[in-house]
From TrEMBL:
It comes from Streptomyces cuspidosporus. The keyword Transport does not apply. Keywords: Kinase, Transferase. The keyword Kinase applies. Coiled coil: none annotated. This is Carbohydrate kinase PfkB domain-containing protein. InterPro entries: PfkB_dom, Ribo/fructo_kinase, Ribokinase-like. Residues 23-313 form the Carbohydrate kinase PfkB domain.
Amino acid sequence: MRETQGVSFDMVAAEDGSAPRTGILVIGSLVMDRKFFAAGMLHGTAGRGETVWSVERHHGGVGRNIATNAARLGHPVTFAGLSGPGADAAELEGALTRLGVALHVRRAADGIGRFDVTLDAHGSQISSRITLPDPALGKALCGPALAERIEAAGAVVMEGGLDEELMVWVSQQARRHAVPVCCLPTRQADFGPRAHLLPHYDVLILNTEEAGALLGRRPGGPARPGEQAGLLLRRGPRVVVVTDGARGAALATATAPGPVHLPAEPGGCADDTGAGDALASAFVVAVAAGRAPGEALAQGLRAARVTIACPQSTCHSLSPALVGAPRSRTRTCGVTRT
């Protein structure tokens, strides 16, 4: 057992000679994003024109993003969560397994989230609609099969917008085997900040707005990431990272005298979507591989920089070489369905 600035990670081989617990178990969501946009006009013989619509499909979901990024950083990953029948589920799952991600999914008719946005000919948004699964469906994941995945993991990452009963159960299983749990708050607008769950997390990674909500601050109020990280640290987690966009991120740990701030990596911006997920992915991968949280945050900021300069929310060029992440020697692949 190794203590890394307040976070314990079991990195030694089991007594039976099995492999060290270095894999990351991600519990989260799968989402299909669809962008409808005007691609041109079709003119008829009467001179009337009709808009020709096209669609772009992109894979999303915080859990899916974390699993994808961690796999590209060379780490063994298992994704657990809801999925569904049909082509969207097959496409999302196939993309993960091609990266070597193992799957542990529960199928439900509405298990895949969908985000649809419609743009006019000038690129301005006309409408948007998001449909996400009922979190209560996730309670079906609780059971011996997922418990075994948790026991075998080096770290667990879960979205904060999952079913509360599932989240508490995962935390209890992880604590039983000294497996650290990292939470990324999601769906605060739907379910509130859920500050009462903070004692169930070992690591908390979030942005200044999410931190403000957890601390009961008014929206749009002044945000001091270092102060927020320090205050959240007192409520249960042993490591807190608060990101602040182009200004970088603050880190507070239970064993350090105070929070530290690291600036963002400089460079241009193609699209900042997914930058926070990239930072979280690289941070968890680095700490799970034995890096100190400060070094892990530096790698996370480099991963965010790679993603910001990329047109995809999970950048295809993300790699250990670009962020300085340690490369694991093992990969896992397989599908478990319950």
